[in-house]
């Protein structure tokens, strides 16, 4: 009996003490799950709530920005794009304020610029492509071995090179190099960005075609 | 033992019981449910997403005073203070965000060139890719409705107004001498290279109380806030050379831009209608320094321009042509700061100084003048919410002008003036809803030289009529000091005055824009004088008056045909004035009743080329024939000019650019100059005022050197 009570007491106390970190992990885990299921609005909502608590953690804001940007690439409806991108930019600005010199955030920023380019290449192409490249160069200087930096930069450059008919071999070599980096890459926690390997493999398949 | 256990269980259940349920409904302001809104307690993990009926329910362990937050894409985030223990289910109404792109915009009278703004008529790129504009900002604006084509001037003439009825501003600070040096009846260009500017607003009337001392129009140019990257641009042109370089540091950047233009080699090859002794030569440069602070941005802009030319101008009044030898020195600097402070406050302040010196030899006589012009400005804005803000501030202008005419036979005449103008303005922007917005302001001005004050009310309203359409109206009074040509001889004047009434309809969908505007302008107190031209001994008064009314239509479409972007501008204007030395109220000689511009740009992917075609047409302009009794009764033949350009991208950073203006070589006549006295047969002889050359050819090679290799100078061509 005593044992049961003791364990129950420990259980309750444990619950009370462990509440704060576990709630974060629970929330993040749930949001990641919803996102994988394609429930992006719900996932964003949870990340947003987490961001309102975790004022010194850049990750929830990062995911709000990232999901809303990806939404623009996936969606056929162009009219909603500015609203998504504004939301993404706001969240990213919050994240950058928390963590100013962060290569992952720079990659996300470059992706927001790329999304603007996709909306209206004629009007936005020139302006945002140099802004995007600037982010990639900055990210590269901070984290030259980050696979997402290496891959995203190469993928962005391939777009331009294909158009100009210049050689894409150097970029393909970079994508290949990123595969090795992906294999070596260990995210700090389970919730730190770790995406990209499948996309890099896909991009490499299309290389040289 | 049992009691302890019961106690513990009770404690545990109590902690379960301490969870409070928060529920309610989220709707828009018309009561329609919103699905997918994020409802949560700020600073807690507790929250949920509203369902299809807008209903939400969640439990929280938080206590006491909390903030309930509701967010939803393109709606304003709502924060409600609640007390958890006494919370009752409630309906939360969200308001659509007025910051979104589909909110109503005040558009009467305004053309914008910028990014992501639906009222943008032009994109920054257009300044330079428009055939016939030749990289001149003013040239590109002349393809918009409301601007007249006045080929012998090259300046902006807006809606029946003269060119000096437009004021130009860089970063909110006035530019006293926006145009380059030129001789009588030869077109000039704007001094500013499009290279350094990212945003532009061209107002053809009804503009904000922030700006004044301009009867017709303001042109607002903004230098880029941030340099994209370090780069070097080189230009090799048939008319000269140019180079620019941008350096970037952590918080600041510096761009400088310099060019040397010499038309001599070109004019040796291509026949000119003007007898140049020494063709136009200039050395000019601009530089911008930007420094960003945590809450603000400081910019310093400086430009210099040294130009000289010498030509023999035919004059119907003399057997031998008049030799004009001009040397112009111009310097402009402008520093501005824009920042935010406190809660919702922002400040914009700056100072500019412009210096211009002309040394003009007219045969054996000399005309020398010098102008110093400064502007100081302070503007404060308080944002009360996303929907209401209040702007107020003041301007202080100082102009100092001296001129000496050295007559070979009669000696020197020296004259000039000094004027200081103080102005104050206050204005508020109010969004009543996403559909209805208003801007109401008033501006007061006092000129030291005239010794008089004015108060100008300005009002504009915009209402969204459908998903893509909106109607705007604008009304305003505008006062301006009489122009330099008069003030240098005489100062006992009143302000010249206009009142604008504008009705605007704007329809914008993705890639297509229709803008139609009708306007009426009432001119009062215009300056009149009683001599051939304004002189020191002329009799002046403010008894002139007039009107201008008309219709402007603009249509732009870059969606219907792939890779084709085109626009059509049409202006109809009916304007009459009795001013200057006019004998009666007539249509002035710079007004053409109908103006039509067609601009097309076609991108050929396989050739990596952009072809651009511009056709400008205007009906004939009046001129006065002293051989007839009726005043200003003549009319020139209509004007037409077809221009083409071809930009070829050799590689991503190397561009070859060809352009020809007036391809068809139309002999356009802008007016006639008549002799001051009749010949022996009693007839006044005349000579036509025509183009300096039938066509203008241009070939340039533009090379950008930068780290990322993606940027090029297409936007500067």
Automatic annotation (TrEMBL), chain A:
InterPro entries: TPR-like_helical_dom_sf
Residues of the signal peptide: 1-18
Keywords linked to the UniProt accession: Signal
SUPFAM superfamilies hit by this protein: TPR-like (SSF48452)
Keyword match Signal: yes
Stated name of the protein: Tetratricopeptide repeat protein
TrEMBL record, chain B:
UniProt keyword annotations, A-Z: Cell outer membrane, Membrane, Receptor, Signal
Protein localization: Cell outer membrane
Domain of life the protein comes from: Bacteria
Coiled coil: none
Domain TonB-dependent receptor plug: 133-213
UniProt xrefs under Gene3D superfamilies: Carboxypeptidase-like, regulatory domain, TonB-dependent receptor, beta-barrel domain, TonB-dependent receptor, plug domain
A cellular component annotation (GO) from this entry: cell outer membrane
Protein name (database record): Outer membrane cobalamin receptor
Lineage of origin: Bacteria, Pseudomonadati, Bacteroidota, Flavobacteriia, Flavobacteriales
């Amino acid at each position: 009996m005593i044992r049961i009570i003791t364990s129950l007491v420990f259980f309750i106390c444990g619950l009370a003490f462990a509440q704060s970190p576990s709630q974060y992990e629970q929330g993040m885990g749930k949001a990641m799950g919803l996102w994988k299921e394609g429930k992006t609005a719900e996932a964003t909502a949870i990340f947003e709530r987490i961001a309102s608590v975790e004022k010194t953690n850049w990750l929830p804001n990062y995911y709000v920005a990232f999901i809303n940007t990806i939404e623009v690439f996936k969606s056929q409806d162009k009219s909603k794009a500015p609203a998504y991108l504004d939301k993404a930019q706001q969240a990213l600005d919050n994240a950058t304020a928390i963590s100013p010199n962060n290569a992952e955030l720079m990659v996300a920023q470059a992706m927001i610029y790329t999304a603007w380019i996709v909306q209206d290449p004629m009007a936005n192409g020139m302006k945002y492509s140099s802004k995007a490249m600037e982010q990639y160069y900055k990210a590269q200087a901070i984290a030259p071995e980050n696979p997402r930096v290496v891959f995203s930069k190469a993928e962005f450059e391939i777009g331009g090179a294909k158009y100009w008919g210049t050689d894409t071999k150097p970029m393909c070599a970079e994508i290949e190099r990123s595969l090795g980096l992906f294999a070596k890459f260990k995210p700090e926690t389970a919730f730190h960005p770790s995406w990209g390997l499948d996309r890099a493999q896909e991009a490499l398949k299309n290389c040289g075609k | 033992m049992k009691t302890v256990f019961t106690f513990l269980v009770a404690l545990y259940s109590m902690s379960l019981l301490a969870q409070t349920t928060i529920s309610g409904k989220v709707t828009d302001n018309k009561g329609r449910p919103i699905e997918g809104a994020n409802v949560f307690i700020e600073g807690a993990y507790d929250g949920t997403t509203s369902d299809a009926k807008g209903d939400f329910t969640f439990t929280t362990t938080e206590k006491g005073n909390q903030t309930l937050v509701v967010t939803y894409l393109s709606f304003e985030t709502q924060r409600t203070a609640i007390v958890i223990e006494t919370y009752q289910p409630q309906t939360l109404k969200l308001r659509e965000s007025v910051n979104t792109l589909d909110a109503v915009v005040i558009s009467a009278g305004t053309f914008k060139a910028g990014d992501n703004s639906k009222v943008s008529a032009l994109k920054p790129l257009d300044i330079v890719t428009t055939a016939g504009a030749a990289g001149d900002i003013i040239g590109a604006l002349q393809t918009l409705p409301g601007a007249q084509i006045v080929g012998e001037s090259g300046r902006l003439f807006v809606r029946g107004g003269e060119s000096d009825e437009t004021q130009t501003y860089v970063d909110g600070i006035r530019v006293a001498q926006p145009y380059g040096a030129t001789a009588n009846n030869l077109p000039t260009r704007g001094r500013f290279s499009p290279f350094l500017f990212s945003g532009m607003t061209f107002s053809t009337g009804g503009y904000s109380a922030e700006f004044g001392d301009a009867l017709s129009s303001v042109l607002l140019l903004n230098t880029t806030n941030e340099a994209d990257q370090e780069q070097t641009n080189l230009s090799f042109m048939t008319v000269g050379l140019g180079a620019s370089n941008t350096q970037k540091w952590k918080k600041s950047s510096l761009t400088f831009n310099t060019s040397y233009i010499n038309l001599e080699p070109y004019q040796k090859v291509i026949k000119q209608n003007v007898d140049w002794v020494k063709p136009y030569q200039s050395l000019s440069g601009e530089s911008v320094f930007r420094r960003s602070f945590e809450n603000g941005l400081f910019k310093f802009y400086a430009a210099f321009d040294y130009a000289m030319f010498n030509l023999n101008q035919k004059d119907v009044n003399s057997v031998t042509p008049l030799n004009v030898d001009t040397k112009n020195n111009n310097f402009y600097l402008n520093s501005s700061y824009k920042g935010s402070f406190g809660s919702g406050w922002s400040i914009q302040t700056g100072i500019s100084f412009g210096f211009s010196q002309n040394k003009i030899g007219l045969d054996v006589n000399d005309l020398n003048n010098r102008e110093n012009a400064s502007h100081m400005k302070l503007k404060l804005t308080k944002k009360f919410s996303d929907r209401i803000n209040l702007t107020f501030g003041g301007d202080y202008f100082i102009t100092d002008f001296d001129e000496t005419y050295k007559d070979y036979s009669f000696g020197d005449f020296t004259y000039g003036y000094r004027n200081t103008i103080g102005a104050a303005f206050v204005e508020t922007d109010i969004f009543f809803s996403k559909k209805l917005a208003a801007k109401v302001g008033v501006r007061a001005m006092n000129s030291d030289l005239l010794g008089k004050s004015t108060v100008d009310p300005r009002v504009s309203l915009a209402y969204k009529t459908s998903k893509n359409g909106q109607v705007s109206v604008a009304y305003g009074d505008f006062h301006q000091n009489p122009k330099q040509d008069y003030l240098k001889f005489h100062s006992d004047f009143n302000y010249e005055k206009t009142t604008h009434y504008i009705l605007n309809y704007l329809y914008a969908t993705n890639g297509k824009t229709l803008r139609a505007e009708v306007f009426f302008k009432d001119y009062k107190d215009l300056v009149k004088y009683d001599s051939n031209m304004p002189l020191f001994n002329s009799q002046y008064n403010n008894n002139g008056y007039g009107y201008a009314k008309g219709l402007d239509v603009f249509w732009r479409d870059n969606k219907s045909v792939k890779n084709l972007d085109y626009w059509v501008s049409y202006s109809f204007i009916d304007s009459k004035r009795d001013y200057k030395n006019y004998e009666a109220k007539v249509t002035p000689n710079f007004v053409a009743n109908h103006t039509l511009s067609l601009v097309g740009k076609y991108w050929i992917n396989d050739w990596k080329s952009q072809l651009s075609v511009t056709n400008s047409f205007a009906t004939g302009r009046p001129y006065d024939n002293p051989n007839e009794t009726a005043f200003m009764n003549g009319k020139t033949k209509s004007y037409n000019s077809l221009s083409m350009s071809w930009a070829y991208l050799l590689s991503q950073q190397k561009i070859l650019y060809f352009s020809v203006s007036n391809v068809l070589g139309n002999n356009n006549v802008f007016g006639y100059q008549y002799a001051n006295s009749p010949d022996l047969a009693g007839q006044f002889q005349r000579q036509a005022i025509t183009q300096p050359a039938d066509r203008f050819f241009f070939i340039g090679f533009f090379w950008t050197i930068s780290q990322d290799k993606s940027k090029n100078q297409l936007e500067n061509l």
